[in-house]
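Summary of Year 1 activities. Much of the first year was spent building the evaluation harness for sequence design. The harness presents a backbone, in tokenized form, and records the residue chosen at every position. We chose the following record to illustrate the format because it has been used consistently in internal testing since the harness was completed.
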């Protein structure tokens, strides 16, 4: 709650500095620290390198890119997530620095997982409704463990956007509607993936379900603008020297709701084990972000 108050206070400060009044629990030093963190962000536009030149992103008009350091500043210093949760982040896409402390702010966190080359043969054959059923069953079992450990339950309501795979570009996107405990407002988890020679670029967004139209449009624009560079593309796979991943597209999709294992276990059946996912949050959904990154302990709520 304190982090939420601090962020909302900072949003008010940036929007109307002469009318700013710190809420209960926010002292001047804390507000100043948050304001300084936002001011020090250095957004980039144009073409940027990802993962030391392995891939590139042509930042769409109206959006901005933050490097690993700035992305971690947002996730840790501004949104209050533990450092371990952002350790794998390589970048982030936002609308503007001020947007990260606005009530309707959002962003897309970028990570890279190198589990090997993923065979996409099952992409167009998979029954994603049947897969969804398996995922829901896995969540029910996982919630039994979450309750034992004092964490809030997470329910997979359904597809907010069913999986769409393009075999020509080797890109896939999907979105899930999630419910945390008895929260009235459901949470959107929008996922996009770009398959490469040895691994997968992962772009993830979390927001309220009401943000689906906006997130859908921006995520698709971003997906069109990100690709692996020559030598690291899907077609560059060399079966003589490169490792194959132990899972396919169905397991990639199923593993998309799993959180970092250091915080809480979300076992989606047995389709994939220990898949890592870093997600982002919206300032108006600070509690939801903490549920993803920190496990959402009941006492913390």
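For this record, the design step produced the sequence shown next.
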């Amino acid at each position: 709650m304190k982090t939420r108050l601090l962020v909302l206070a900072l949003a008010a400060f940036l929007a109307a500095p002469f009318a700013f009044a710190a809420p209960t629990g926010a002292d001047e030093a804390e507000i100043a620290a948050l304001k300084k963190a936002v001011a020090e962000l250095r957004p980039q536009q144009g073409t940027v390198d990802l993962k030391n030149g392995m891939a590139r992103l042509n930042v769409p008009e109206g959006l901005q890119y933050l490097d690993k350091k700035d992305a971690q500043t947002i996730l840790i210093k501004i949104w209050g997530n533990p450092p371990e949760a952002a350790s794998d982040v390589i970048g982030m896409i936002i609308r503007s620095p001020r947007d990260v402390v606005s009530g309707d702010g959002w962003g897309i966190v970028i990570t890279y997982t190198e589990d090997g080359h993923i065979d996409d043969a099952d992409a167009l054959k998979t029954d994603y409704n049947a897969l969804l059923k398996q995922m829901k069953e896995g969540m029910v079992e996982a919630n039994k463990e979450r309750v034992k450990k004092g964490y809030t339950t997470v329910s997979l309501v359904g597809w907010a956007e069913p999986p769409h795979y393009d075999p020509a570009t080797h890109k896939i996107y999907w979105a899930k509607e999630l419910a945390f405990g008895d929260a009235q407002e459901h949470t959107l988890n929008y996922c996009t993936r770009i398959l490469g020679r040895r691994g997968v670029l992962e772009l993830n967004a979390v927001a309220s379900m009401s943000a689906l139209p906006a997130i859908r449009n921006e995520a698709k624009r971003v997906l069109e603008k990100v690709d692996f560079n020559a030598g690291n593309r899907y077609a560059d796979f060399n079966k003589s020297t490169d490792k194959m991943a132990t899972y396919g597209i169905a397991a990639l999709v199923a593993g998309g709701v799993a959180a970092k294992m250091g915080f809480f276990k979300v076992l989606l059946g047995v389709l994939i084990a220990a898949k890592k996912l870093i997600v982002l949050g919206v300032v108006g959904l600070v509690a939801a972000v903490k549920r993803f990154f920190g496990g959402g302990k009941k006492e913390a709520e």
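The first strand starts at residue 47 and ends at 50. Quantitative recovery figures across the full test set are reported in Table 2.
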